[in-house]
Specification:
The chain is mainly alpha-helical and about 120 residues long. It has five helices and no strands. The chain starts with a helix and ends with a helix.
Length: about 120
């Protein structure tokens, strides 16, 4: 019966199983790359595992450097300085990095006054 229908309606390929579904990579993985899985490795001793770890760390650092250059990391560190619960809260050096990036002149006394005002208003515990 399928052959009769295909010849009657001039259908050349009646088998729909010929088409292979194309898989697509999820959006969150499109910018990166994968060298190997985190499953089983053939490392037989600690030194081989250390070599694998160092290689992975180098690749991760290279990827972070490619994604977040010097300006972006400076902006992230300066944003961290604006959080009252941060250990670097109003760190003068990091804030100066941000002020240089945006060409804003910040004096040390302004930072000191801001710290005293904010510490009086924010409970850091």
């Amino acid at each position: 019966m399928p052959k009769d229908l295909s010849s009657k309606y001039e259908i050349e390929n009646f088998d729909v199983r010929d088409t292979i579904r194309q898989r697509s990579l999820p959006e969150r993985f499109r910018e990166g790359y994968l060298n190997s899985s985190v499953g089983h490795t053939n490392a037989s001793n600690f030194e081989e595992l250390e070599i694998l770890l160092r290689q992975n760390v180098r690749e991760i650092l290279a990827e972070l450097d490619a994604r977040f250059g010097t300006d972006q990391s400076g902006i992230m560190k300066a944003a961290d300085c604006c959080l009252p619960r941060s250990q670097n809260f109003l760190n003068k050096q990091e804030l100066n990095t941000l002020s240089e990036l945006y060409a804003i002149d910040i004096k040390d006394c302004e930072i000191e006054v801001s710290v005293r005002l904010l510490l009086g208003k924010v409970n850091l515990s």
